[in-house]
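[INFO] parsing input record for Cysteine synthase
[DEBUG] input buffer:
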Amino acid sequence: MRTVLETVGHTPLIRLTNLLQSNDSDILLKMERTNPGGSIKDRPALFIIEQAEQKGWLKPGGTIIESSSGNFGISLAMIGAAKGYRVIVLVDPKTTPVNLAMMNAFGAEVIVVTEQDDSGSYHKTRIALANKLHREIPNSFRPDQCFNPWNGQAHYHQTAQELMEQCDGDIDAVVLTVSTGGQIGGFSRYFKKHAPHVKIIAVDAVGSTIFGGHAHAYLLPGMGLSWTPTNIDNLSLIDEVYKVPDEDAFLMCRLLAKHEGIMGGGSTGAGMVAAWKAAQLMGANKRIVCMAADNGERYLPTIYNDEWLNELGLRTYLTPEEMRIRAKKLEPHSTNPIETANYQPELDELLDSPSRFLEQVTLQ
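[DEBUG] output buffer:
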């Protein structure tokens, strides 16, 4: 191999063996932590950068500028180090110390945005500042993951197809957590075209309004938005939406570590809550795949830290049976996401999104 970037993709599937009961469906975790940057975000980050290079929008010696809660920024920092680009990442106070340290280790310049937007989050203020820097810095490129259709195409052409081949088509449901919408957008298009029997289950954070509802602050990093991203271009392709509370997601992370030997981030825990719900509903002899987006070691100071959880008034442990009951009681937020759509097309103009000028490649 010529560079570390050639190791992106081809991540393994791990079957859970200890938490589930005999009448549950099988749950397989797709371990995206084995990507070189430690998360699923390596895939769209590399795809977008290579597309920009091919079109001449990113030239040698250029600068990559992006808004990220952590993982996408780490991926870009790694890619920039491997390819020789300057990288500037706009993060917020929810970004973990480990993620900040990783971006710095790869040589990225990190700016922490502390001004909240009108939803109590930081997404809009981060994006607005990233776009401002892009206008001011010559020879710069904005991957613009929230608005860039290449984000979803990376998962359509690569991740979803890879999963289908690994399972030889033997999949009954896929559980995906949602933020920028690239993953759920690409997966839902792929499976509804090539394997329409596969149920697509989206998982959001309580407090996010990607699929409508009441907006408020939440702790889960790397999940949620205060609007429906355009990367989810067809909500009718999503079968169910669940919203998982912070505490449930964190408790599930800790159970996976203690009972399966698997450490994942908060989104993995959130996805697993919904996956366990589905496993109890669908029953034995079914196969559910849950995307494990990143490495749990990044959250040792937070999710896996008793003191941090205690300070927030959150529980540090439930028994597997207690968590199983919590998962079973989880109710769908929506079984017809079109009815709860929260598209805000004015944001593209308001935030001066550079990717609105992208030449639209045909979505498959």
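[INFO] The first strand starts at residue 13 and ends at 15.
[INFO] shutting down worker
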